[in-house]
Amino acid sequence: MPGSVVIGRDVVDRMLHLETGRTDEALNARFGISYNSWRKIIAGRPVRSSMAARLVRRVESIEPGV
Question: Which range marks the domain in which residue 26 is found?
Answer without folding.
Answer: 4-62
